[in-house]
Every structure is written in C-alpha cells, then in structure tokens.
Specification:
With about 250 residues, this protein is an alpha/beta fold. The protein has one domain: NAD(P)-binding Rossmann-like Domain (Rossmann fold). It contains nine helices and seven strands. Strands 3-2-1-4-5-6-7 form a seven-stranded parallel sheet, with helices on both faces. The chain is globular.
Length: about 250
Amino acid sequence: MTRDLAVITGGSRGVGAATARELARRGWNVLLTFRAEEAAAATVVGDCRDLGAWAGAVRVDVSSEEDVRGLFADVPGEAGALRALVNNAGIVAPTGPLADLDGERMRRVLEVNVLGVLLCSREAVRRMATDRGGVGGSIVNVSSRAAVLGSPGEYVDYAASKAAVDTITTGLAREVADRGIRVNSVRLGLIDTEIHDRNGQAGRVERMAPGIPLGRAGAPEEVARAIAWLLGEESSYTTGTHLDVAGGR
C-alpha cells in the first residue's frame, strides 16, 4: 500500500508529536518540523517508523519564508504524495496584561502563529491543488478557544493570533474548495502539555481544570484523533469548520 504524506509543523512534542504518531498509526507517512528540540523530534520519527511509516524531521522556523520554501521543496520522493498539512507550530509567551507586553514579544507571536500558517499553507496549496498538478488534500490549522474568549489578563496577543488563524481557515477553505483541498481548524482548550511550564505557568492545568465543564484538561492524543478525523475521508464533506476540542469551555 502506498502511503500519502502529511507535514506536521511543531511535531517534536505535545499535540504535534501525538498527531504524528496517530497519523502514522492510521497509514500516513509523516514529515515533522522542529525548532530546537532535535532529540525529541528524532524520538517521534523513530516511533512513527516503528509503526511502519516513512518519517523524517527538519529544523524549520515557520516564520522564515526561506525555511518554509525549503521544507516543501526538498521532500524526498520516497515520502509519498503530499496530501495533508497540520499547521501546529505556535508559541505562547508568559502571561500578562496587554499594558505590560513589549512590542518584540507581540511581533514574534504574530510572526510564528500567523505568518507561519500563511507561508506553510501557501506552499502546501501550491503542491496539492488539482489545478497545479496536485492530487488534492487537507489542511488542519491548530487554533485555540482563546480566539473566542480573548484571554484577558493572560495573553491577548496570542488570542489575537489564533483569531487570525480562524479567519485564514475560513477564507482559505472557500478559496481552494474547488481545487481539491479542504481546510479546517481545531480550537483547543486546556490541553495537558509542557507548554504551560515552559512559559512560566506551572500549575495552570491543575488550577483551571475544575472550571472546565468536563472537569479536566484534555490529552494531546484526544486532539490528535480529532485532527486525524479532519484529514481523513470520514470528514470529506467538512471544510471551513472550527472544531472545538475544549471540554465544553
């Protein structure tokens, strides 16, 4: 059986790593990107290969047009036809009210979380669109409930970046629907990953979990299954949709 290829940005840990493993389990080849954690990326690649997939990892800054162009231009032939992109790479800076945030922090959040999605989506569309010789495919953008809730007092800039991701999802879905490409997003709630600790928010999961209707944080694997569904044929009539994976919050 010939496997198709899924590119997953930010695939070395958390939701990205869980998604890579889930897609490999479901018969996809996977090419993941990482920014700094090469050893973690290598572990994910090894896990995916153990599941029978072709797998690889590339160091990429998704906000760099040169890096993104190279990522898509240098895909090995044995990786299979590109049929999926998961725009998962994103950053969250330490919490604080807008009045206390500096411009460089806000600029970097927007560069990675918004420009990165635009650049990667552009390159994927160029290769998947049926009017450009592609075989069609699917894009899933990893968004956040922060886009709706606004994250006051925590990170309004991050919330704004994810609202932009939702807008990209809606617009691009309509733009490429007749070119064989579906575009959807998953809007995450509180997910139990190390991103909170890395950004000076130790204990945030435990503190916020009681306020979630389901009474707990989500697991990366639960998000991965939702992403895999949106990429697969089971969701063939779904595009331009924002799927909340947030425990009811």
